């Protein structure tokens, strides 16, 4: 697998971040990752095919919202909360609060978690 591109702080664009956050599955992924823990892709549960989940994770990474790390055959993802906060102060907190209030992305969780199917 080739090395994934992660935008530098100055390359993170508001329009790209907002576009990435326009999908409920991606908002759900951000909610899951908001605890600050790095998660293996296999830990994530969403009502989509694995290829579609991979697409959503790539959109988040390309927008600068997440950082992906590969270790052997496993991939891990981490929310770039501090980078997003430095670039757009308060944005992520507002988005997460609104998503929680409106229950956006509730169908996304961790395997074996409270929303497990």
UniProtKB/TrEMBL annotation:
Keywords recorded for this protein, A-Z: DNA-binding, Transcription, Transcription regulation
InterPro entries: ArsR-like_HTH, HTH_ArsR_DNA-bd_dom, HTH_MetalResp_TranReg, WH-like_DNA-bd_sf, WH_DNA-bd_sf
Stretches assigned to the HTH arsR-type domain: 6-99
One Pfam family, short name: HTH_20
Coiled-coil zones: none
PANTHER family xrefs: TRANSCRIPTIONAL REGULATOR, ARSR FAMILY, TRANSCRIPTIONAL REGULATORY PROTEIN
Protein name: ArsR/SmtB family transcription factor
The organism of origin for this protein: Sphaerisporangium dianthi
């Amino acid at each position: 697998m080739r090395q994934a591109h992660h935008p530098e702080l100055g390359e993170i664009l508001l329009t790209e971040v907002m576009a990435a956050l326009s999908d409920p599955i991606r908002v759900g992924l951000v909610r899951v990752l908001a605890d600050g823990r790095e998660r293996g892709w296999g830990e994530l549960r969403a009502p989509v095919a694995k290829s579609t989940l991979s697409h959503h994770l790539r959109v988040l990474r390309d927008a600068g919202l997440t950082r992906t790390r590969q270790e052997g055959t496993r991939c891990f993802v981490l929310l770039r909360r501090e980078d997003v906060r430095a670039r757009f102060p308060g944005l992520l907190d507002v988005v997460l609060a609104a998503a929680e209030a409106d229950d956006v992305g509730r169908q996304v969780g961790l395997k074996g978690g409270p929303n497990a199917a």
